[in-house]
Amino acid sequence: MEGIAVVGVDCLFPGVHGAPAYWDLLMRRGEVTGAVPEDRWRAEEFPSVSRGGFAADIDVFDHVFFAVPPREAAAMDPHQRMLLQCAWRAIEDSGTAPSALAGSETGVFVGVMGGEWGRLTMSDSRWVTPQLGAGSSAGMIANRVSYHLDLGGPSLAVDTACSSSLVAVHLAVNSLLSGECDTALAAGVNLVLSPALGLVYEQMGLAAPDGRCKPFSTDADGIGRGDGVAVVVLRRLADALADGSRVYAVIRGTAVNQDGRSNGVTAPSRWSQQKVLEAAYRRAGVTADQVRFVEAHGTGTVLGDAIECAALGSVHGVERDQPCAIGSVKGNLGHTEGAAGIVGLVKAALALHHRIVPASLFADRENPRLRLAERGLRLLRSPLRLPRGESFAGVSSFGMGGTNAHAVLASAPRTEVVRSQAGPAARTGSTAHAGSTASTAHAGSTASTGPAGGAPAAGVFTLTADSPAGLRRNLVAQAAALRARPRGPVAALCWSSARVKTGLSHRYAVTARDTRELAEVLERAAASGGEGVGRPRSWSAPTVAFLFTGQGGQYPGMTAGLYRESRAYRRHLDAADTALAPHTGHSVRELILTGDRRIGSTRHAQPALFAVGYALAATFAELGVRPAAVLGHGVGEYAAAVAAGVLGLGDAARLVAARGALMAELPPDDAMPAVSGAFHPAVPAPVLPHLRDAARGLRAERPQVPFASTRHGRMLREEPLDADYWVAQAAEPVLFGDALSALMRESGPTHLLELGPRPQLPPPAGMAGEAHGAEFLHPCPGPEATGRDLAEVVARLYTAGLDPDWAMLYAPEDRRVEPLAPYVFDPERRFREERPAAVAAVADRMPGPVDASAGAAPGADFVRALRVEADPVLAAVVAAVHEVGGYPEGTVGPATRFYEDLGFDSVMIMQLKDRIEARLPRPADVSVPEMLPALGSVAALTGFLTDHLAAAGTPAA
User: Fold this and answer.
1) Tens digits of per-residue pLDDT, 239-273?
2) How far apart are the C-alpha atoms of 823 and 59, rounded to whole Å?
3) Stated pTM of the model
4) Half-sphere exposure of residue 578, counting CA atoms within 13 Å on the CB side?
């Protein structure tokens, strides 16, 4: 079958959060079993089943991040809450921002067994609520992920007992192979919420007295239960490789079967286990002797281990170089039941990724009755290094009811990193073209390649969070992860951050060249207490006007640092040079970059400034910065005309070269000063006929963006930018201030981006008071400017709401996924109940009429602050919203939005209607469909109800 790539992983076990921590546990042969936490059950009441693998803080859930109302969060099964957060982090680990999958047909397949939460919370009918109904359903575990991440593919929970999550992987693989989805999340989740199943195991003779699984050991004496959550992100291998995704391992084949009528519905079948392995190997196209190791089901029960080893030996006991290594992570974690299959799959994927198989925890106490050696099997007493080339592994998971699953994994294929064929070099007089990129490189890459001297390229590190506090938490986490790395370049990390750490409401961006510098900047930002750290995302992109520099900004060697570091700027300046060369008779590019002092003469300055302005504008256009309006000063107006689509590069180059040459032929008294201020004098009359001759036959198009004319001192309307315009533009005074005023008034830019070799236009514009409220940006602030200054501008525009084409900023070899610290959710929000049926404490019960000003009403203090006497309908709405959602005091006001801010759904809307009517002096007699259009905000609903009551002749008070 076609390979399926494992591209993302996240997991949570006792004392372990994330794949790196899991791998560390495996390699050091760690074990996580311990006593049951006090918030699960009282150990003294069930001493025989009160040890196992118990995760801490299963009551922690960042409900605000996922827009889940507090009351609903309290009613949700902890399985749902923990899986949501793991799913988010797994998608991040795949090199994708979770928000990028919104609206896609991504599938969600979750293995889970039992339904302890439902038994704990729904057993007393007096406390049954709609929230508990949805919160305790096993099927909703997958649906929650699909709903909150807006995933439109298949979404289902699988319960085949202990094989549930590997069966979920099998279904996800087949969904991908059929084309039903392009990305799939396969997961397993298991939390030991009560002693009930442990008591079942005990009565069946399957429970380990010490709560520890000891697979294949002479000490094996039963099952120890364990908590575990694991999520893998799957894609078709070809798609993953084409997208540059990191591949942990490749699923080559899966199989699922059933014991049928065996020697008992809960007894394992050797023959069925053997058949499922053989079927998986056939589908994977491998033979048993190619499989280096098997992550076995390995529960540590005497019968289970014996039957499984017999089945494994029947398949793997063939002629081979070395015995097949077997192991079971249950020895480290306990039996994670419905999650066990995917927990084993993640272990196998990590082993293939690191090319080393961890040692078995109980290998030094191997059970001789299993006859492993004669069956071609062995336990690993020390880690096994995998040889070069492709390696294969198997993963088994068997359900108590006889549903068996097996998966075959292979190591990821080797891929070549795209490199530049030639490195960039500063121009020193040579006419050789700067370094080109490999054939797979993006043609428009503006990638920064590092300045001369070997310093690494600059990048933009981005980070988003749902709140300022969330941003600070994640700044700390990213800085700590960077500190743990060796010092090195950050371009690939920055590229990864642009792919992964975007999409949330509060944005942060900063430029850096190496990991130490970046860590220091992030630490300072986190320690600032929020001052100047990030900003809320604007719901509209910034409005950027391009301002093009006129004569006076030139200097020897201008933009040389930018040319050295930015491929796109090099390419566009080279294009301008090619267009100008037939008319100037020399290379403008070489004149600019070599420090030639002739750049100060008018003949050379005007073409050079045009070339720089054109190249900068084209570079920003490739980065996704589209001008809302353009304005050029003097010769800069020609570059503005090209950016607006009025002139082609060739026509503009011809005119600019002619203009400069004609000015150079004037007597000294008539010539324009070599370096002049922003408001230079008009071109002398003797030049104008010759300039008209040069412009003859000019083809000018209508501007594609608003064009501020310095000739007219206003926005251009129907006037053509033909030969007459350019002659008059040279002869008449430059009305820059008037043109800028018109641009600000009619286009309303949020940012003014000056495109020239150094800042020249903003000071007079600012002094004239014409650009009040707009932020000035410049990618080339002076002689020391480099590619980092270009990146700084992109970072500023990103935090203002722009979504750049990030690929254009990085070299091909830097456009690869690097691991970043996962998102850190709020650890302070807890939904802990003191007794198992504790959702009763927040259960919804239909109230009678409530005095909205009474102190006992939810939200009463805030309601009083809203002047209840003045607006009793608003008071009733706010109090009802507080009660339905269980929101903290003071979080609901007139501007609060029901869907975006409060996470309302259809059930909550129905409850809201009943509670509002209970608080009004007379029923509003309004239906839910009538209410729906008014549910934009609390104020909108209040207005609707007030009007409805007035129309019905019912007083509001």
Assistant:
1) 999 999 999 999 999 999 999 988 788 888 999 99
2) 18
3) 0.86
4) 9
